[in-house]
Amino acid sequence: MQDSLRLIYMAGGKSYTLVPLKKILESKFKLLKVFTKYPKPSGRGKKVLANPLQKFLEEEKIPFSFPKNLKSEEEINKIKNLKPDIILVFSYGNILPKAVLDIPKWGCINIHASLLPKWRGASPVQYSLLNNEKETGFSIMLMNEQVDEGEILYKEKVKIDDNDDTQTLLNKITELASISILKVIENFVSGIIKPVQQNHEIATYTKIIKKNETYLDFNESADNVLGKIRAFNPNPGSKCFINGELVKIIKAKKEILNQSANKPGTILDDKLLISCKQDGVRPIIIQRAGKNPLKLSEALNGWKVIPGDIVKSEL
User: Fold this and answer.
1) pLDDT in tens, 220-253
2) What is the CATH number that goes with domain 6-202?
3) Under DSSP, is residue 287 helix (H, G, I), strand (E, B) or coil?
């Protein structure tokens, strides 16, 4: 195996995308450049702020760019001129055209946060939580023109703990994948690892989470409601209306209830136990409109919530 494989890293810019990058910097590989996404305006002032990856790259004086269009001849030529052996892609959010996929000597390699062919697409971590799964994992694959259909180089299982949400589970997956990725690349280039075709017949798919999907419907089981709360934390957050006020439930726990005649969504006690179609959920951390997230005991201080009130998914 070459000691100095020439590598480009492409990532979207969230803080967790720093983990594989730091492993690359500690390795014998030669990092040529980082491609990331231009940060979107955010906050009340709609200011454009550097994403965590960009901040790190600027601090460490690592060359990077925000390619506007990877299909353009200009961008393709820029990548060709770097003469990469590998392009490593993680949570980039842009589809690479064939003209880019064909540039690196050993191809483009992607870290995907599920055990492919399960949960292809943009939201694999969220879907594993929405479905209350006990186990997920990550796949390292050779990219092709189709979304998440490339040949597999390596897969590893990851346990989902009861208190995991999207943030904690993604952090776990990223840490483990970052430990494996460099060795997988070395073994692939050395011929030790042979790419394996996915079984497309058993593939399942995810979609980008839309805001209207994040409103909690208590006419579902407590397991389903809790799955949404875990899947949508930290973003975009699970929402409902309490006394006409929009409230995010950031963390909650399931409580077993005897068969009840209460209408789903009914507040059952002064500690905000909410009935579901089956069992109930008790919020642990909530965020009222215009306020910071608070533990339930603090949020209820001075906030009049009466047993018998109905929590709604829409006004």
Assistant:
1) 999 999 999 999 999 999 999 999 999 999 999 9
2) 3.40.50.170
3) strand
